[in-house]
Amino acid sequence: MMDRYSLPHKVFLYFCVVLFLGFILLPFFEMFMTSLRPLEHLFRSPYQFWSDDFSFKAYSQMWETVPMLPRYIANSMLISISVTALALAFVIPAAYAYARFDFKGKSLSLGIFLAVNMFSGAVLLIPLYKLLRNYGLLNTYFAMIVPGAAFLVPMGIWLLKSYLEKIPRELEEAAFMDGASRLYTLRRVVLPLAVPGLIVVGVAVFLSAYAQQFLFAITFNSVKEFMPLPAGILEFIGYQSVKWNQMMAASIVGILPVLVIFLFLQRYLVAGLTAGAIKE
Amino acid sequence: MTHASEDLLPYQGERGGSAQKKQGMLQGLMRSQATFAWLLIAPAALYLVLVVAWPLVETVRLSFTNANIGGEAYIGTANYEKLLSSRKFGQTVSRTFYWMFLSVSFKIIFGLIGATLLNAAIPGRALFRMLVMPPWIVPVAIGCFGWLWLYNGHFGIISGALQYIGILDGPFEFLAYKQSAFYSAVVTDVWVGLPMVTIFMLAAMQGVPRDLYEAAYVDGASRWYRFRRITIPQILPVIITMSILSIIWTFNSFEIIWILTEGGPRSATTTLIIDTYKMAIANFKFGQGAARAVIVVTLLSVFSLVYLFALHQIKKRFEAA
User: Fold this and answer.
1) B61 FRET partner, CA 20 to 30 A, in A103, A146, A185, B126?
2) Angle in degrees, CA A163, A167, A170, rounded to 5
3) How far are the Cα atoms of A199, A228, A232, B40 from residue A247, in angstroms, in the given order?
4) A32 to chain B: which residues are within 8 Å by CB?
5) Which residue windows are transmembrane per the record (chain B) (predicted)?
6) Which one, of B57, B64, B103, lies nearest residue B246 by Cα?
7) Rounded CA gap, B48 and A157, in Å?
8) Which residue on chain A is closest to B124 by alpha carbon?
């Protein structure tokens, strides 16, 4: 009863939804349409909404315009996967400690971790640059992996902590009683039970790492061979003209993997991500 | 429970111990709990000390020097004095606040509207909820390349559509003029941040107990009244959390502006972060860049403290009620 809408009300709701989603999806729609058009059609004035020969040619030409494109895509993946692995290596033990143990300075130290979220890499670029230079990491993959992972560790700890708190303690206590060491319990009892949570946290970290490669890439790396896709895409902007159709095609190819991952896991991801913030 | 313990075969040897011994061991473990917890936290803490805390301290130190590509020397508070007396920097600060105010308000208002729409019991809402997310998960830089093309005056769809319906009578380069470039950057920043705000508010709305609405409905309360008097107060903590997160992200927002305008035209979109980046990375004036970074960090800390205070107040009120 309460949820019933009258017809005009319903029409209005759908109208608003269309407007809202229209704004959200407009860039993707236009990116896709642009990728289907021949370059000459894009550069027509006045603007034309329709071209008569849509084709997927840009999707094959883009590999010739930017021969390094496959390398950029692979770099993006490699960097994101490494960031995820590195971040999780730090996140898992810390999240377990916060989920299970009471100790002095617990909430203070957790607060300090979360405060890291306040800073973006952009504020700390100068000393980070020096740090990476001192360790000889500038212009390597590590220049993008090491700072990338650091800013995702707090988020990971927070997400995984809320998941671990839901796993019953009894199993661990039973293992202790049998004399298993704490580390052994963590490895053999807790982690297997936490796999679904680990996947959510891992995917969330991966997606964030994939989304935020641009800044560290353009600042700490100048070697073409190591560039991730968001920075590599700039190559479509040439001295003479911008190959917009191919640039958009490459962008779509670049966002496809994350969209697919997200499509499969969105239910778990959204539940996992919002859980920490909503419960009070 | 027994099942789980039988999986721990390697430790069977220790099982024979007397109950007393077990008790003592357990106490020992309990005592070492804090040590163990800190051992688990140590790697993450050390990592962040190295990559975040040390750079932060170093930034503060650099801000008192004239560090550049050639070397550095201590110059006291000269960098700050220069900043505070600079009219241009004052403009950058007020621009940053205006940018933040606009972007965050839009994100919160449209996030509320979006969440309400997606929470309405209409067919297709599962699909709509999914379609909101892409800007959130897609690389920010790539989304911005899309907007860069949308804003193109001659060949972009926005200028094209506005000409078609007669609002513009010729091509309009959105990113070429001070005013329009600024507002275009705001729109793109809203686009990037809106999905997450919407989804979190939606999740909060779904958590509001249904009987509150039913009771109000029985009493004849209108939808608007229920929204105002039930939904908003119930999800207030999330609204506040989303506001502070948006403030922090909008303040730190770099890629969007850098890709769209690099802070131009004529500094029209130069926020504090862009200014810091330009000074430090593009001009190699590390000392002056660091001073800006310190100001950014200070402001962000103030926002966060205000946030913690506000959340604390609300919790108190909730508990009182």
Assistant:
1) A146
2) 155
3) 32, 15, 10, 45
4) none
5) 35-57, 97-118, 130-150, 181-203, 235-260, 289-310
6) B103
7) 12
8) A14
Residues A274 and B19: their CA atoms lie apart, in Å, by 45
Closest Cα of chain B to A149: distance in Å? 10
The span from the CA of B51 to the CA of B56, in Å, is 9
Tokens of residue A24, six digits? 């959200």
Question: Using one digit for the tens of pLDDT, what is the confidence trace for A230-254?
Answer: 888 888 887 777 888 889 999 999 8
**Tens-place pLDDT, residues A59-94:** 888 888 888 899 999 999 999 999 999 999 999 999
Asked if B4 and A189 come within 8 Å (Cβ–Cβ), the reply is yes
For B273, the 3-state DSSP assignment is helix
Residue A47, beta-bridge partner list: none
Q: How far is CA A135 from the centre of its chain?
A: 27
Q: Is B319 exposed, middle or buried (0-12, 13-18, 19+ CB in 10 A)?
A: exposed
Tell me if B117 and A13 make a contact (CB, 8 A cut-off). yes
Look at B139 and A210 and tell me if their CB atoms are within 8 Å.
yes
The ipTM estimated for the assembled molecules is 0.88
Q: Which long-range contacts (CB under 8 A, 24 or more apart) does A189-194 make?
A: A189/B4, A189/B8, A190/A96, A190/A164, A191/A92, A193/A167, A194/A160, A194/A163, A194/A164, A194/A167
Q: For residues B90 and B86, give the distance between their C-alpha atoms in angstroms, rounded to a whole number.
A: 6
Chain B CB contacts of A153 below 8 Å:
44, 47-48
- Residue-wise pLDDT for A40-59, tens only, equals 777 776 777 777 778 888 88
DSSP secondary structure letter of residue A247:
H
Residue A76: closest C-alpha in chain B:
B139
Cβ–Cβ gap B191/A24 under 8 Å: yes
DSSP notation for B20-71? HHHHHHHHHHHHTHHHHHHHHHHHHHHHHIIIIIHHHHHHHHHTTB---SS-
Q: Which amino acid is at B243?
A: S
Is A27:B145 a contact under the CB 8 Å cutoff?
A: no
Q: Which of A103, A124, A258 sits opposite B34 (nearest CB)?
A: A103
The predicted-structure confidence for B250-261, as pLDDT tens digits, reads as follows 988 899 999 999
The CA distance from A148 to A206, in Å, is 11
For A17-79, what is the HEC assignment? HHHHHHHHHHHHHHHHHHHHCCHHHHCCCCCCCCCCCCCCHHHHHHHHHCCCHHHHHHHHHHH
Structure tokens at B229: 């008097």
Task: Say whether A262 and B120 touch across the interface (CB within 8 A).
Answer: no
Q: Token pair 């940053």 is at which residue?
A: B96
CA B127 to chain CA centroid, nearest Å? 26
Q: Does B56 touch chain A (CB under 8 A)?
A: yes
Task: Sort out which chain B residues have CB atoms less than 8 A from A117's CB and list them.
Answer: 248
Instruction: Give the whole-angstrom CA distance, residue B297 versus residue B56.
Output: 9
Specify the long-range contacts of residues B265-269, CB closer than 8 Å, at least 24 apart.
Answer: B265/B175, B265/B176, B265/B177, B265/B178, B265/B181, B266/B178, B267/B88, B267/B91, B267/B92, B268/B177, B268/B178, B268/B179, B268/B181, B268/B182, B269/B99, B269/B181, B269/B182, B269/B185
